[in-house]
Amino acid sequence: MTEIDFVPSAYTQTIATGKVTCKAPSNIALIKYWGKKKNQIPANPSISFTLDACATTTSLSYNKLEQPINGFSFDLMFEGKSKEDFKPKIETFFQRIIQYVPFLKEYHFSIETSNSFPHSSGIASSASGMAALAFCLVEIEKLLNPDMGNDFMIQKASFLARLGSGSAARSIEGSLVQWGIHNKIENSSDLYAIKYPYKVHSVFTNYHDTILLVDKGQKTVSSSVGHNLMHNHPFAENRFKQANDNLEKIKKIFAEGDLKKFIEIVESEALTLHAMMMTSLPYYILMKPNTLQIINEIWSFRAATGSNVCFTLDAGANVHVLYPESEKEIVYQFIKDQLVVFCENGQYICDRIGFGAKNK
Ligand code: PMV
Question: What is the rounded CA–CA span in Å between residue 127 and residue 107?
Fold first, then answer.
């Protein structure tokens, strides 16, 4: 598939008005995407667990305009309130995708969106938000072009979501999703994510992710700035190679269910992501003292109990605590007894592996 394959031929149907509603989850990368080329093409392949509880629900009402306009006509409500400051981001997204969804210029859209996770939790909503919006757009396109097949719809939703926010490409399907060309992963693509196509041991089918909210404030450096700092980064080439190597290694781990090796790759990926930030120019640190406290507690607990609990981080201070279903009681008790104290206002979110975006 190339970009051109996502440009639709003339629509066969006309529709005056309607409404679609979709819900898309967030995802947590095990092998991290960090660094990108033009048009949101990733500098290295990544793989993630799709989440379940952390999700965005978006409704798109559409009304055909008398005639197509030059810009885009839309209004936006976020959690029941008009949200002017989100509009430029949507406008940029629409500009990026207009050639793939030309009907955007033919309608006025009312976008209503809300997140399941609390306001300013430090959890980025761009993955679930862009995935939900992209999914809605493909649902509308299906009405204009009823011949569009299901597999293609999913691919196109991921393709469009990627143009909104790279990691959003991985929020359309579940539960283990891979994005970015890798020479040992058949059908892998830089343009959209795919369901991980190889054997996955049952231990990975119902993993838990408890997200510890260490710092709920706005990040000091955004992900887009961070990605850009990978250009001319002294360790960039080695990092991109490491991600490719880790993806190859993790194939065997997924097949065999080797949790010790899984932990090694996942924690190393998390720390490498932050190491890249600390060695960028300008350098910066997104972890907080409590992030490190939690990591050390997890290491001590693992050493003392032999548990398979581990952590990963996204581009922020919050900690994702990952553990298999068989350990849910003991790890949850550990979280409550020893980790919640490091969370801002004692807040955390219990999440687990999920199955991707759906219409409602
Ligand atoms: O999708 P973006 O541009 O917000 O980048 C996200 C990057 C990480 O979350 C740090 C890693 C990843 O692969 O999701």
Answer: 25
How far, in Å, CA of 109 to CA of 289, rounded?
Answer: 44
Q: Is the CB of 310 under 6 A from ligand 1?
A: no
Ligand 1 midpoint to CA 318 (Å): 14
For the Cβ of 32 lying below 6 angstroms from any atom of ligand 1, the answer is yes
**78, 66, 142: which is closest to 107 by C-alpha?**
66
Compute, in angstroms, the gap from residue 273 CA to the centroid of ligand 1: 10
Instruction: Please spell the DSSP secondary structure of 37-86, one letter per residue.
Output: EGGGEESS-EEEEEEEEEEEEEEEEEEE-SS--SS-EEEEEETTEE-GGG
Give 10-residue mean pLDDT values along the chain (360 residues).
Answer: 96 97 98 97 98 97 92 95 92 97 97 87 85 98 97 98 97 98 98 98 97 88 95 97 98 98 98 98 97 98 98 96 98 98 96 96
